[in-house]
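Closing statement on the manganese (II) ion sub-project.
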Amino acid sequence: MKIAVLPGDGIGTETTQEALKVLDALRLPNLELSHGDVGAAGYRAKGHPLPEETLAIAREADAILFGAVGDPSCDNIERHLRPEQAVLGLRKELGLFANLRPAKAFAGLEAMSALRADVARDIDLVIVRELTGDVYFGEKKRETLPDGRRQGWDLMNYAEDEVRRIAHIAFRTAQGRSKRVTSVDKANVLETSRLWREVVEEVASEYPEIALEHMYVDNAAMQLVKAPGALDVVLTGNLFGDILSDQASMCVGSIGLLASASLGERSTQYGTFGMYEPIHGSAPDIAGQGLANPMATILSAAMLLRHSLGLEAQAQQIEAAVAQTLADGVLGGDLGGTAGTSEIGDAVVSRLLTTS
Ligand code: NAD
Ligand code: IPM
Ligand code: MN
């Protein structure tokens, strides 16, 4: 079982180290780790945010554990050399079109939600975000208009097959949950969304047991804070999913808690090939100080075991140890506590060892 470990930049390196501690504590036989540079670290070491060597390591693995990329020192370099191109490049090159971002309330953390505790307590949803299309990957350009004004372009587009395959993922996800899908779009304004809605309806007809509702993205942003417990599987495009998932994290309590899996069609010997990463970024404001909450990355490692290595029991063990650590009040500054990054990682490991 091969895992490519790509810690990246800023707190990505700190949280990945804790996730590796947790994986190590499971003492899985036949686990082989390989390490690669990505993001600003890749740019500094090899002159590119996604060096050839790193992409090769990623391709050879059964799964990728990814930290985060991004560095303010790269803010003014050309777009194709920015650290963020590493994560976009991996998603596109490896065909990882389906991004699952679960958000579930943790017992004992209700008071840390940005919402009232009685509202926060009911959260149990998963955002199914399309990951290799939309305005992220459409044509981009800069031009100067005849009158001298500068103009920027990003084309938002979806082809029907791109919508169809992510819709199938959402409906299949719903089969294993409460059999409801909320498809989020902006079909009252965008042609891309009108096609999205049409195709989602077509796919829905193949899943008569699943209830489908459509919601405009502005309303979805509102419903997510009004009554998040009413949402279950939220199917949406790349841009809307990016924004709604950061919002969902604060409904749970912190962006340091939300994990993600990015999956494609390729199978491995043990499961589905995928990349696993926290939904947060490199957090330059707290990087290097041992202040980052590593739970999102630790929970991403659990998703990796579940989806790519077929190790459901071990995934659940990690999730239970994380929940117990939080319930015991071992919290970082993001959750009103004082525990540091490695202290939190150690606390998860000790609970893992006592419960397994
Ligand atoms: P961010 O997610 O890095 O940080 C937003 C805020 O949340 C910051 O105040 C940060 O301190 C806090 N935060 C984030 N993760 C935390 C954690 N685990 N524990 C405690 N606090 C945490 O978003 P940003 O500041 O907008 O972006 C910083 C850089 O990261 C940018 O270069 C951006 O492009 C990049 N980014 C990368 C990824 C990725 O690699 N997948 C994701 C998002 C942003
Ligand atoms: C995320 C990040 C990325 C995205 C950036 C770093 C390209 O915000 O994974 O949520 O927008 O998808
Ligand atoms: Mn994001």
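The radius of gyration is 20 Å. With this model delivered, the sub-project is considered complete and its resources will be redirected to Aim 3.
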